[in-house]
Design a protein that fits this description.
Number of helices: 3
Helix content: over 70%
Shape: rod-shaped
Radius of gyration: 61 Å
Order of helices and strands: HHH
Structural class: mainly alpha
Length: 182
């Protein structure tokens, strides 16, 4: 019996060790199960976040595509508007030049802005005015130089060198008869 008690004691010890190990394993299994449950919950949350992110990405891509389409349309409208502004500026330039025929078209180049055209027209007006004044001054100087003085110019005797002697005699007799008639 002593052996039986010893064997029973050993068995009880082994049984207690096995129970302790079993309790440790059960505790570890419970921890693992809790961690697995937490991991599953995190996985579900991550999948939901991924799904939400994928939807947000799809929405952002759609918004980007829409914005790019709008940008393309706006660029086309801007190009058209610029073209119309250039045409309007050209028509405005032509109308201004037609209204002021004294201004040569070369003095007002084709520009894109109405303000620039107005500035060039004003500048050209100044140039044309200066040229007119200069021409008028030159014309007045030429008129002064070409003017005939008031009164009769001094009389000179006619050149008789080309007359024959008989013509000279006839002329002399004619002049004498005119003097006597007065």
């Amino acid at each position: 019996m002593a052996r039986k008690d010893r064997d029973t004691g050993e068995l009880e010890e082994h049984l207690a060790d096995a129970q302790a190990q079993l309790e440790g394993l059960q505790s570890a299994a419970a921890d693992a199960e809790a961690r697995a449950s937490t991991a599953r919950a995190e996985l579900v949350a991550l999948r939901e976040a991924q799904s939400t992110s994928a939807q947000q990405l799809a929405d952002a891509e759609a918004a980007r595509d829409s914005a790019q389409a709008e940008l393309s349309q706006t660029r086309a409208e801007l190009t058209e508007a610029r073209s119309q502004i250039k045409e309007a500026a050209a028509r405005y330039r032509d109308a201004r030049l037609a209204a002021e025929p004294a201004i040569p078209p070369d003095l007002v180049p084709a520009l894109e802005s109405v303000d620039e055209i107005d500035q060039r027209i004003e500048s050209a007006r100044g140039v044309v005015g200066q040229v007119r004044e200069k021409i008028q001054e030159e014309s007045e100087e030429a008129n002064r130089a070409a003017r005939v003085p008031i009164g009769s110019p001094p009389r000179r005797a006619p050149d008789l060198s080309g007359l024959s002697p008989s013509e000279k005699i006839k002329l002399g007799l004619q002049q004498m008869s005119e003097r006597e008639a007065r």
